[in-house]
Specification:
The complex is a heterodimer of chains A (898) and B (116).
Chain A (H helix, E strand, L loop, with lengths): L6 H8 L3 H22 L4 H12 L2 H41 L1 H30 L10 E10 L2 E5 L1 E2 L1 H9 L3 E16 L4 E9 L2 H5 L6 E2 L13 E5 H8 L9 E4 L2 E9 L15 E4 L7 E2 L1 E5 L5 H14 L12 E6 L8 H32 L1 H9 L4 H37 L16 H26 L4 H7 L6 H36 L10 E7 L6 H16 L6 E5 L9 E3 L2 E2 L13 E7 L3 H4 L6 E2 L6 H4 L1 E5 H7 L9 E4 L1 H5 L18 E7 L13 E6 L12 E7 L5 H10 L9 E4 H7 L2 H35 L1 H9 L4 H30 L15 H18 L1 H8 L3 H6 L2
Parallel strand pairs in A: 5-10, 7-9, 18-23, 20-22
Antiparallel strand pairs in A: 1-2, 1-12, 1-13, 3-11, 4-5, 4-8, 4-12, 6-9, 7-10, 8-9, 14-24, 14-25, 15-24, 16-18, 17-21, 19-22, 20-23, 21-22
Chain B lengths: L5 E2 L4 H10 L4 E2 H11 L4 E2 L2 H13 L3 E7 L5 E7 L1 H26 L8
Parallel strand pairs in B: 1-3
Antiparallel strand pairs in B: 2-5, 4-5
The chains are: A alpha+beta (898), B alpha+beta (116).
Chain lengths: 898, 116
């Protein structure tokens, strides 16, 4: 028999020797049996043979035992891991709870940092990254035509039939499907009417998008006839308006007065990309042969470049006989784009995304600081645990567990904060078109995934920063001397981090202050007329009312208001300043200067107004005169200052005759979809007066050129359009309510006339910059708070580290004032460097906010100075607590300590 | 050794092992000996299958194992019943007894008369 070497047993301390144990066990059995049989009188050989026979297939038995042994070993390892983890977690929870203030600050830092980042990244993810969330999205593009007029590039849509022709003839694309968003409509279901946003698509869109309906079915293309009126509801609308009832499929409801039948519900994740309008609530199914237009989604074949596909699709389009793809007078090009290319808020969003990424870094830095400061305080505890047998790896695991736990708890908080942030963002979203894209962002799984990834990333960065610091530590030395001296390198690293923090918040602060200044400047803008107490009352002309009747009715309504108590004045007009006016693309020519109608131009706001309009608006006449009774017949016009300057630079425009050259070839009402119908030359009009420019959209770079034609009640041809507008001035405080009441009682007005405060309308044009300012300000405040926490942390830590040094200084005669100066001076020095770096960075970074600045230079010294001062004050304030602590140090105690 | 031995039914071996170790820590050889003696050497177990069975029960945590020293001063692996194993033993004994008495009862009864 082979003897077991004694040393092998010790291996079991290292790791269980499964095979050896099984062999031992079976050998023991054999020996015992052999002894037993020999005692009964067998020889050794006989006994061994008998035992072997009785044992049977011993190899199989041994193998099976080893298998079971391995399974047990795995179980044991797992159990011991979970035991260790459980005790680590328990220990971590206990140690976090022992320092509640520290834990709260750390959690809040992670929560705010990751939460804010989650909010912004969720928006950026939807609007900048995954804008076409369909299978093989890297090959999916939005086919669009665009035309260029002057400096502006305007997207335009493609005829419906195009998708079908491309599908049939193209060799560069796999699929093309019409899907276009962006109409508003009113949905009438059983009891209530809902304002909804609609999209339209071919039934193939569902397959193109790789989507599966929540309920219902996708009709075949044959079923989708123009008369069929089939539609999908989106899951959001289905849940909010229809209680997620499966019965809704097959129901018919009124959409803008037409009957539409619901055939299915599309999943919440399915979107039709059209960032210029709100996210669709329902999807109308259209047939590719319908005579309408929209945008087309194409999926390129693998390996085909965007350029190659564009060229081929363009060629096919040109050869197709679809009615409205003939080129217009402007270059009209086919482009394959991504929705983000048309995103109006793209630059501010990029800026916010980078800013918030920096903020997260700041937050990570702070948490690393907090861990370091705490680590220093716990040096002794760790050293003692190491001395009594805890291995270094065990201690590291313990600390890592604490960090991970912190990151997890912070991450949970971040999900809540990020979710709340998104909702706040949605709630504050201004109604303007530029921010419609925000409706595409929905808090969901993607948001949580982002938060979790960021929290993990944050944990890793924090761990790394803390590890860099601790790696140089010798625990044994710590035990002997205590945490007296942090290394010079570590201190420099910490200082660098704080400088970075201050710099980031300085940049954010400058950005926010630039916007604050912009708003102040915008609110002081001269709008060109007196908007105080000015209201626009709009009513629809009663059905069938024409010509003189109509003029008489308008005069009757005006008189009603003129004589009403409180009303100072009322005039008939054809537009309300501040509401979207009647803009025409015009190329003005004079008899001496004929113009090429094809040159691009900005629009001119053309309105028809009565003679008393200018007095009523408190618009001073700059030159010439206003209308009289004969003005209409004589084709006299009044122009705004900027149009006058354009037409007659440096001289008086009075008496100048002008007309719109564009009318010659193109029709003055431009629409890229309508065919150009050459019309006869416009008659000449004579300028008789100049009035100030009107600027009701305060965010516009320059006022639109304005042109006023006389409106006379006798010349009823001027009274066109379906609406009558009365401008009323009533400066009393309760005017809005009173006018609304008065408007409701107007004879034959159905629906009741609407009352719009011109002031409010002008103010509404500030909604977008105000929103951008608020968002940026919120992040700037967050940045400043984080920087203050960081500064406070570093200074406190350094005071703690230098307790002995300060004690010695005081023992040697340093006054409390000089100690305070020492501590605060440290903080201010770090902050100053940070501010300088931050301001320097702002010189570059503010380029990203330029598009939302009005009337303020992006190098605005006021914003830069205010940012610097504000940060210095905050830096000084965050040094106060550590300063007080430093001056309270008792020299006798401090020197003796440790 | 009597010739008329019976092959142990699968499953019954587990029950016998549990019973064998229920008296206190014993090694595998002792388990084999106990089965021999307690069944008057009527049940013939292939001893090669005994050990995998012991290890299987150990993995199920019905019995626990520890290395110790035998009476003859040799290193041996000792098995003892765990609380979980004791509960299992009770359950299996109960099942077995009811099974056996049912079979006995059936064997004692007269065969079914052939229905007309």
């Amino acid at each position: 028999m082979k003897r077991i070497p004694a040393w092998r047993r010790y291996l079991t301390f290292w790791r269980a020797d499964i095979e050896g144990d099984v062999r031992d066990e079976l050998e023991f059995h054999t020996e015992m049996r052999v002894e037993e049989y020999m005692a009964r009188g067998m020889t050794d050989a006989e006994a061994r043979r008998a035992v072997a026979e009785r044992l049977g297939d011993v190899t199989a038995a041994r193998d099976e035992c080893v298998e079971w042994g391995k399974i047990r070993a795995t179980h044991a390892r797992r159990a011991s891991f979970f035991d260790g983890l459980r005790s680590d977690v328990r220990y971590a929870v206990r140690s976090l709870r022992r320092a509640p203030a520290w834990t709260a600050v750390a959690l809040l830092t992670i929560g705010l940092g990751v939460g804010a980042t989650t909010t912004v990244f969720s928006v950026a993810d939807t609007l900048l990254v995954r804008t076409l969330p369909y299978p093989a999205s890297s090959r999916v593009y939005l086919a669009q035509r665009q035309w260029t007029a002057g400096k502006s590039v305007v997207p335009s849509s493609l005829p419906f039939g195009m998708a079908k022709i491309w599908r049939e003839r193209s060799h560069t694309i796999e699929d093309a499907v019409l899907a276009s968003g962006g109409n508003s409509a009113t949905l009438l279901s059983e009891s209530d009417s809902l304002p909804v946003s609609t999209a339209h698509a071919e039934p193939g869109f569902i397959a193109f998008a790789g989507a599966r309906l929540v309920t219902g079915r996708v009709p075949t293309p044959d079923e989708v006839t123009p008369a069929a009126h089939l539609m999908f509801l989106t899951e959001q609308l289905w849940r909010t308006a229809f209680n997620a009832s499966p019965d809704v499929v097959g129901h018919t409801m009124k959409l803008d007065g037409e009957d539409w039948t619901v055939v299915g519900v599309t999943p919440a994740s399915l979107t039709v990309p059209s960032f210029r309008s709100q996210r669709a609530d329902l999807l109308r199914l259209v047939n590719a042969t319908e005579p309408a237009s929209g945008s087309i989604l194409v999926r390129l074949k693998p390996g085909i470049t965007r350029e190659a596909a564009t060229a081929e699709l363009n060629a096919i389009m040109k050869n197709s006989n679809l009615p409205d793809v003939r080129p217009g007078p402007w270059p009209m090009t086919l482009t394959l784009t991504r929705p983000q290319d048309w995103l109006a808020i793209r630059e501010p969003l990029v800026m916010l995304t980078s800013a918030v990424a920096l903020l997260l870094l700041v937050a990570c830095t702070n948490v690393a600081h907090l861990l370091l400061a705490r680590g220093a305080a716990r040096q002794r505890e760790l050293a003692v645990r190491h001395a009594i047998g805890a291995s270094r790896s065990r201690l590291v695991r313990q600390l890592a567990t604490e960090s991970v736990l912190l990151a997890l708890l912070g991450g949970t908080l971040a999900v809540v904060i990020g979710w709340g942030g998104l909702h706040v963002l949605m709630a504050l979203r201004p109604a303007g078109r530029n921010f419609n894209a925000l409706t595409y962002v929905a808090p969901g799984r993607a948001m949580i995934a982002i938060a979790v990834m960021l929290a993990i990333g944050c944990g890793l960065v924090v761990g790394l920063l803390a590890a860099v610091r601790s790696a140089h530590r010798d625990l044994a030395v710590d035990l002997r001397v205590g945490a007296a001296n942090a290394g010079y390198g570590a201190r420099r690293l910490r200082s660098l981090l704080v400088v970075g923090e201050v710099a980031v918040s300085a940049t954010l602060l400058v950005g926010a202050l630039l916007l604050v200044h912009t708003l102040f400047a915008l609110e002081r803008t001269d709008v060109g007329f007196d908007s105080r107490g000015l209201y626009g009352i709009t009513l629809r002309v009663p059905n069938g009312m024409k010509g003189p009747d109509r003029a008489g009715y308008a005069a009757e309504v005006r008189d009603r208001f003129v004589h009403a108590p409180g009303v100072e004045n009322a005039v008939i007009s054809d537009q309300v300043p501040g509401s979207s006016g009647r803009m025409q693309l015009a190329v003005w020519e004079t008899p001496d200067h004929p113009q090429d109608p094809r040159i691009g131009t900005n629009g001119t706001a053309i309105s028809a107004v009565p003679a008393e309009y200018f007095a009523m608006m408190h618009m001073p006449l700059i030159a010439g005169r206003t209308f009289d009774d004969g003005s209409f017949a004589r084709r006299e016009i009044v122009v705004s200052q900027s149009l006058a300057n354009q037409l007659a630079p440096g001289r008086s425009p009075i008496g100048l005759r002008i007309r719109n050259a564009r009318a010659r070839t193109w029709g003055s009402n431009f629409s890229p979809e309508k065919q150009a119908m050459p019309s006869p030359d416009e008659p000449w009009q004579t300028i008789i007066g100049v009035v100030p420019d009107v600027m009701t959209n305060l965010t516009q770079a320059a006022p639109d050129a304005g042109l006023y034609r006389p409106l006379s009640l006798r010349d009823t041809t001027a009274m066109m359009g379906p609406r009558i507008i009365i401008l009323v001035r009533d400066t009393a405080r309760d005017a809005t309510a009173r006018l609304a009441q008065m408007a409701a009682s107007v004879r034959r007005a159905d629906p009741p006339p609407s009352v719009l405060s011109v002031r409010d309308a002008i103010d509404a044009s500030l909604a977008e910059p105000r929103f951008t300012m608020r968002v940026l300000a919120a992040f700037a405040v967050l940045g400043v708070v984080l920087a203050a926490i960081g500064l406070f942390g570093v200074i406190s830590y350094s005071v703690g580290q230098r307790t002995r040094e300060i004690g010695v200084r005081m023992a040697l005669g340093a006054t409390r004032a000089s100690i305070a100066q020492l501590v605060v001076g440290d903080g201010i020095r770090l902050a100053s460097i940070g501010i300088i770096v931050g301001l320097a960075g702002s010189l570059v970074a503010t380029r990203l906010v330029q598009s939302v600045l009005y009337g303020v230079s992006r190098f605005d010294p006021i914003a830069f100075a205010a940012g610097a001062v504000l940060l210095l004050v905050i830096a000084a304030a965050s040094c106060v607590a550590p300063m007080l602590r430093a001056t309270m140090i008792d020299p006798a105690h401090a020197v003796r300590a440790e | 050794m009597p010739n008329a031995t019976v092959e142990v039914l699968r499953g019954t071996l587990d029950l016998l092992i549990l019973k064998a170790v229920s008296g206190g820590p014993v090694h595998g050889y002792a388990v084999a000996r106990w089965i021999e003696q307690a069944t008057n050497d009527l049940l013939r177990i292939e001893e090669g299958t005994l050990y995998p069975a012991l290890h299987r029960l150990e993995t199920k945590e019905w019995i626990s194992a520890a290395w110790g020293t035998s009476d003859s001063n040799r290193r041996a692996k000792f098995y003892a019943l765990t609380p979980k194993g004791r509960a299992q033993l009770r359950r299996e004994m109960d099942t077995w007894t009811r099974y056996a008495s049912a079979v006995f009862a059936a064997l004692a009864a007269s065969p079914t008369p052939r229905s007309a």
